[in-house]
Structure formats: structure tokens, C-alpha cells
Design brief:
Blueprint (H helix, E strand, L loop, with lengths): L23 H21 L3 H23 L6 H13 L1 H26 L10 H26 L4 H26 L3 E3 L3 E5 H21 L5 H29 L14 H5 L2 H15 L1
Antiparallel strand pairs: 1-2
Helix pairs in contact: 1-6, 2-3, 2-5, 3-4, 3-5, 4-5, 5-6, 5-10, 6-7, 6-8, 6-10, 7-8, 8-10
Length: 288
């Protein structure tokens, strides 16, 4: 059900099984399996990571487009998904200019597609809203994800990508542990009732320690870069999670999809990783 104006719909209640509202054994099994697979890919066949991440971006874009259309937001799915793949993949041969060009071209095609998707004799309904949300989705998923490709192409890029992924996991684990054990003060209860300031402090502690270790041991760089990266990733990972929570709240859903047991959909795993990819590229490219 779509929320009425001024009255956001409440997400469906989470199933019982853990204080985090997830099937914890299934979530751990899926998380470990995905984590080990990605580590092996990054260490031994790093270019394959682009194909894996590109597939995840395509599925996540489809999940979001499907949910939006269920809420009567008519995003043009075909150009959004195909163009989103161009945004992500063109970073490999052409770098940031390829990403920017593909983004601008896809945004324009989506605008034209939505303008005429009911034919030449029928004016589109909610054109401004739908195209604005389409461009937002294009920026939210493929554009932010493309910085993982740009990061991979840097010197020791596979280790840089591994570093940022480890830190996102540190943020998630630290937030979960501290939130479950000590969480008493909600951070933003109107958006995410289970997220607490204690959990945020746990994320900060785990992520800074993880940043110190990974930047020093994997990247052989100054430990203070790890501190900067750790703090930055905690902030943007938390904000990324809150952004998706608010979108799901407005759509009246609990998860974007059901592909990953204990996690939801692919987008439900990428929410904190997408902005983290950009900040990792920015920090590591600037300071190392």
C-alpha cells in the first residue's frame, strides 16, 4: 500500500527470531558465503568482481523499479536497467568520464522514454515525479556503485575494494552487537526504530579499528588514513541504511526483495555499500 500524503505507511512487522528482526542463522550463512566468495574473487580473479558487482547492480535496480511501479511510480525500467549497466561498466575502459557520460545519456533517454511511453497523443501522468525518481534511482544505485569499479582500477585496487568491504562489514557487525547488547537510545526512531546511538558507537569502534588494521596491513599506508576512512564509512553507511529505510517506509514494505534469505533482496545488502564505495574511492585516491 502506498502511503497517503503526510502519513507514511508503516513497514510490515518483522518476523520473530532475533532482536534485529531477521532470521539470524540464515543471515549469517548467506553473509559468510557471499563474503568468502568475494574475498576469493578479489584476491585471485579481481576483474571478475566487475561482472559480479554489475550483476548485483542490475538485480538491485530491477528490485527497486519493481517496488516503485507497484506503488504506481512509473519509472522506465528498460532504459533504467540497461543504462544503469552502461553507467557501471563504462568506468572500466573510460574511467570517470565514461561513468559521467553514460549517466547523463541514460538520464536523458529515461526522460524521453517516460514522456512518450503512452504514445504521441496521450500526455504522461506524473511525468515530473516519475522522471525525478528515475534519475534518483540511477544515481543511487549504478552511479554510486561505479566508484567500486573506479576503485578497483587504482593501484592495488583489489585490496582497496577488499578494504572498503571489510569496513562496511565492521560497521554492520559493530552496530548489530552494540545495538543488541546496549541499545537504549533510538537514533532516528521516525525512520528506523531499531537503530540506536549505542549501535552507532559500536559501528564507529569496530570500523575505526578495522580501518587501522586494513589500511596498515593490506594497503601499507599511514594508519591515520584508516581512521579517516573508518569514520567516514560509518557515517555514510549509516546514512545509506537510513535512506533505504525511509524509502521502504514510504512504500510500506519491509524489504526490497526476497532473493537473499535473512537479508531480503540484493538492494537490502547494497544500501550501505553504495555510498561507502564513493567515500572509499574519494579518501583512498586522495590520501594514498
Amino acid at each position: 500500500m502506498v502511503a497517503e500524503a503526510g502519513h507514511p505507511a508503516e513497514p510490515q512487522p518483522a518476523p520473530s527470531g532475533s532482536r534485529a528482526g531477521r532470521n539470524l542463522p540464515a543471515a549469517l550463512a548467506v553473509g559468510f558465503g557471499l563474503g568468502l566468495s568475494l574475498i576469493a574473487i578479489l584476491l585471485f580473479v579481481p576483474k571478475v568482481f566487475i561482472a559480479v558487482a554489475g550483476t548485483a547492480v542490475g538485480v538491485a535496480t530491477w528490485e527497486v523499479a519493481k517496488r516503485l511501479r507497484e506503488a504506481d511510480v512509473l519509472v522506465p525500467r528498460i532504459p533504467l536497467i540497461v543504462g544503469g549497466q552502461a553507467v557501471f561498466w563504462l568506468g572500466w575502459p573510460y574511467g570517470a568520464s565514461g561513468v559521467a557520460g553514460a549517466f547523463a545519456g541514460t538520464a536523458l533517454v529515461c526522460m524521453v522514454w517516460r514522456l512518450f511511453d503512452h504514445g504521441l497523443r496521450t500526455a504522461p501522468r506524473n511525468f515530473l515525479r516519475d522522471t525525478a525518481i528515475t534519475v534518483f534511482t540511477l544515481a543511487w544505485i549504478p552511479l554510486l556503485a561505479s566508484f567500486a569499479t573506479l576503485l578497483l582500477l587504482e593501484p592495488d585496487g583489489n585490496l582497496r575494494v577488499l578494504t572498503f568491504m571489510i569496513l562496511v562489514v565492521c560497521s554492520d557487525v559493530g552496530g548489530y552487537v552494540a545495538g543488541v547488547l546496549f541499545g537504549k537510545h533510538p537514533m532516528v526512531p521516525s525512520i528506523s526504530p531499531k537503530k540506536s546511538w549505542e549501535g552507532f558507537c559500536g559501528s564507529l569502534l569496530f570500523c575505526v579499528i578495522g580501518g587501522l588494521l586494513t589500511v596498515t596491513l593490506l594497503l601499507q599506508a599511514n594508519s591515520m588514513v584508516g581512521v579517516v576512512l573508518g569514520v567516514g564509512l560509518v557515517v555514510v553507511a549509516t546514512v545509506g541504511d537510513l535512506i533505504e529505510s525511509q524509502i521502504k517506509r514510504e512504500l510500506g514494505i519491509k524489504d526490497m526483495g526476497t532473493l537473499l534469505p535473512g537479508h531480503g533482496g540484493i538492494m537490502d545488502r547494497l544500501d550501505s555499500m553504495l555510498p561507502s564505495a564513493f567515500v572509499s574511492w574519494l579518501v583512498l585516491s586522495t590520501l594514498i
